[in-house]
Every structure is written in structure tokens, then in C-alpha cells.
Amino acid sequence: MTAHSPADPRPLTGEPVSLDLLNTRWMMDGEVADLFGGAFGLTRLEGLAVWLESSGLAGRFRADAPTLVHLLTARESLARAVADPADEGARALVDAVLEHGRIRATLTAEGPGERAEFTDPAWGPAWIAARDYLELLASAPDRIRKCASETCVLHFHDTSRNGTRRWCSMAVCGNRAKASRHYARTRVR
After folding, report:
1. Which one of 6, 60, 184, 187 is at 20 to 30 Å from 123 when CA atoms are compared?
2. Could you report the per-residue pLDDT of 121-176, keeping only the tens digit for each?
């Protein structure tokens, strides 16, 4: 982050960009918090700037109103697609976002390459997130997970060796579950 950029307040960052976009909404004190919702002393566009910085897209795209609108469209379509991969309507929404960009094959000094092109640069972050979701589906769709905590809305890509990660964070949701089980066991005695 640059010196004047506010810190990212989200509890889980660093996931693939499609899931990181979903994780711009999370539970805080029993209510849904939204990085793009004008909370945490940030305006909606400042929240967008924080997310662009966190996701590595800040130098390529502007934190402006059109980008925010398109990103919110992508977030809703991805949320539906992740929640129910069989939902045809959700797939159509993701496809609608993908209509705003394409991959162009290129020849670089290093050899073959690819470059994303967009109908409008404001669609760039939304398209990149939707494209990332396709890549996750192609590589390991069963590793796209929602946190096992009933009170958590975060998603993650399970990169554990045996594919058994259950929690967005072992330090937060995993610890709560373990503490709850321990308390239940000790109360029975």
C-alpha cells in the first residue's frame, strides 16, 4: 500500500482475485460488513482503491464510479455462481461480465504471451475476477470453499496438501469451533 492508502480492514485477504472480491463482504459483530459499503471511515471509492491495491490491480485501473459499478456486478454474479454452480442464471451473469473482455495472444521477447483486452477499462477488474473464477474451476473446482463456520460468509481456495481445509482462518473461525466443542465437552461432565 502507498503511504496515504488506508489499511485493508478485511479479516481474510490474499485469496485468488475472484474469491478475494467475494471476501469484500464479511461478518463483523454479527452484521455484514462491506468494503465497498462506505464503512470503516472509507468512502465507497476509497474502499475500491483499497481492494485494487490489495489485489495488485491498483496501477492498472482507476478507483472510479464506473469501475465500482462493474465490480459490484461481478461480485453478485460470482457470489451466485459459487453458491450454486448448477444455477444457469448465475452462469449467464458471469458470462455477461466476461463479454466485456478477451484474451489476445501475443508474441513477446520471451515467447508466446497473452494480454487481456477490455471493451472499456472500467470493466477490467470485474472481468479479471470473472476470468480468475474460470481458472479456479478449470484447475480445482472442489477446492473453492465457503468457511465451515455457520456465522462466516468468507470463501477460500483450499491449497492444503490433502484438501481438507475447512475454515477461512484457523486462528478465528477454526479456533471458535474448537473452543465451542471443548466447552460442550466440559459442560457435559
Report:
1. 6
2. 999 999 999 999 999 999 999 999 999 999 999 999 999 999 999 989 877 786 66
In the chain the first and final C-alpha atoms are separated, in Å, by 51
pTM: 0.88
User: Angle at Cα 104 formed by Cα 91 and Cα 61, nearest 5°?
Assistant: 75
Task: Please give the C-alpha separations between residue 23 and each of 36, 42, 153, in angstroms, as whole numbers.
Answer: 11, 17, 8
Q: What does DSSP assign to residue 142?
A: G
- Please list, in sequence order, all residues whose beta carbon lies within 8 angstroms of the beta carbon of residue 160, skipping any fewer than 6 positions away: none
User: Which spans in the chain are helix H?
Assistant: 17-22, 44-54, 65-83, 88-98, 124-139, 175-188
Tens-place pLDDT, residues 65-85: 999 999 999 999 999 999 999
DSSP code at position 15 = S
- The candidate with the shortest Cα–Cα distance to 168, out of 151, 150, 152, is 152
Report how far Cα 143 is from the mean position of its chain's Cα atoms: 14
- The backbone torsions φ and ψ at residue 114, rounded to the nearest 5 degrees and listed phi first, read -135, 150
CA distance 55 to 49: 10
